[in-house]
Amino acid sequence: MPGLKGRVVGQHWYTPYVFMLPGLLFYAAMFAWPAVIAIQLAFSDYDIVHPVRFSGLDNFVRMAHDPRVWIALRNSLLFVLMFLPLTVVAPLFLAMLVNLKLRAIQAFRMLYYLPVITSMVAVAVAWRYVFNREGVVNWVLGLFGAGPTDFLLDRHWALPTVVLLEAWKNAGLFMMIYLAGLQSVPSDQIEAATIDGANAWQRLLNVVVPSLRPTFAVTLVLSMLEAMRAFESVYVLTRGGPLDATLTLGYYIWSKAFEDYDMGYASAVGLLLWAIMIVLAGFNLLVTRRRDI
Amino acid sequence: MARRLYRRTPRLNARRIGLYLLLIAVAALFIGPFLILLSAATKPAGQDVFGFPPDLIPRPPVAEWFREAWTTIPYARFLVNSVIYVGITVPVYLVVSALTAYPLARIAFRGRGVFFMLFLSIMFLPGELMLIPRFLVMSELGLTDTFAAVILPAILSSLGIFLLRQAFSQIPDEIVEAARVDGANEFAIFWRICVPIVAPTLAVLAILGFVSVWNSFIWPLVVLTSQSKFPIALGIAYLSGVSGTDVRGLAAGTVISLVPVVVVFLLLQKRILNSMGGAVKG
């Protein structure tokens, strides 16, 4: 870092701002300005045709009496609950698997990572084939005597199927985060535990998991936020259906705004979603901080 | 040495084979859906796409569905659009991110921490929540249904500024001081000395940028109305909505859209994989 006291030769008071100018302009136009509009709209009535009209807390009163907001909230929380074990626990085992020192292990990492970089639209097409009434999943279930199910058209199965798609698509990312964490676990600790007679399961619980605490902090936040804002998967797979079974907050906001042009109300629901995400992130920060002390 | 290998090999082999079988079974879960897609895209019209038990081998493999997907929708147009979106967004994204991150790492000024937090706050303004206000900003600027509207929101990301700031601050002072003594100004130091040193980080961000622009769907869906400006992801959604599109044709169209990303991934996989875990971990 250059000297903190006095000007460095060739630098002026305005030098850092000149560098940051484009970034600040984009920040102002694409983040700050829209954020102000979003907050303003949440307290207004706006249908694109008529001018924006301040309506105080009307939108929030309406939200409290809107059963679909509650359905969306419940579905989003269910989404988080199902998504968490699939992205915080399962990828740890994937990471342990691809952390083995075997030939061609990099190829397996690559294959597991492939869904992360492909588009949700493309992946959704593939999943509709896999979960088709006459698709592979129903065939496998049939071997165990279960009748064929239209997963995406079934009120009980639609949401878990969407969650599974999101988890499958993101598993590789979480795996790589854990892999980076695993590779920084001191191997002498694991060896010491082995010499002390700890079996693989005990080593996992007593040595690996405690030293991965900072990594868990990252995956936990990432997983919760990802699940809370889930929208694209819902849009391309089910459009919130059947009968609102996959109506998440993100999808409800979109449909209110761009199908009903009820922009003010949609922004109010958006503010609710934003508040939930901030609370979840803050809660995570608190919990992981306390553990560190 | 040789003796030890000889004695250990048999036991290891059984364990190894078991592990490889497990690795392959898990791999099937992750690439299975893509293989099913490819199978549907290459099956002749007379062969069922679905059925029990699943029959994934096309007999014989045909190319006609790729041709059909290509002509049912203006596929080439969508591909060109996506190339334009990537070609403009990624270089601008890299330049703006590097310019912004440089002073945050290498120039001492009051409020540096505040500015850094400001740019990190982007993390808490996810695109899903910005759809409505950004749409209104674009209407205000008269930019709805333009290429610019698709590109502008993608220019700034907290990850880009975070990683580049980290990379810039790891450059040893001596290198920079030597140039400064020689009379180089700050921009020359940034452009000729520091940017080349952080090239690996820029490469990672370029790849991530390419992938995210290529796959972007929701924002273009909201801000574009003319089909002639659709990126490829929107094109696939459009194809699946065209009535009478055969499941094989849809599969073929989807496969084509995956090719560029998969090729880039295969070529640069080491860099991508090694970056991801580290990037998020910070």
UniProtKB/TrEMBL annotation, chain A:
Entry's localization field: Cell membrane
Organism name: Kribbella pratensis
What is this protein identified as? Carbohydrate ABC transporter membrane protein 1 (CUT1 family)
Q: Does the keyword Magnesium apply?
A: no
UniProt keywords (A-Z) are: Cell membrane, Membrane, Transmembrane, Transmembrane helix, Transport
Q: The ABC transmembrane type-1 domain covers which part of the protein?
A: 73-284
The record ties this protein, via PROSITE patterns, to: ABC_TM1 (PS50928)
- Provide the membrane topology annotation: Multi-pass membrane protein
Q: Which InterPro entries match?
A: ABC_transporter_permease, MetI-like, MetI-like_sf
* Lineage, opening ranks: Bacteria, Bacillati, Actinomycetota, Actinomycetes, Propionibacteriales
Question: What family name appears in the similarity comment?
Answer: Belongs to the binding-protein-dependent transport system permease family.
This protein's source sits in the domain of life called: Bacteria
Q: Which Pfam family, an example, fits this chain?
A: BPD_transp_1
**Is the Glycosyltransferase keyword given for this protein?**
no
The residues forming the signal peptide are: none
TrEMBL record, chain B:
Supply the source organism's classification: Bacteria, Bacillati, Actinomycetota, Actinomycetes, Propionibacteriales
**Keywords, sorted A to Z:** Cell membrane, Membrane, Transmembrane, Transmembrane helix, Transport
**Has keyword Repeat?**
no
- What family classification does the UniProt entry report for this protein? Belongs to the binding-protein-dependent transport system permease family.
Which stretches make up the ABC transmembrane type-1 domain? 79-268
Membrane topology, from the record: Multi-pass membrane protein
- Tell me the protein's name: Carbohydrate ABC transporter membrane protein 2 (CUT1 family)
Q: Which PANTHER family match?
A: ABC TRANSPORTER PERMEASE PROTEIN MG189-RELATED-RELATED, LACTOSE TRANSPORT SYSTEM PERMEASE PROTEIN LACG
> From what organism does this protein derive?
Kribbella pratensis
**Which spans are transmembrane here?**
20-41, 83-102, 114-135, 147-168, 189-211, 250-268
Q: Where in the cell is it found?
A: Cell membrane
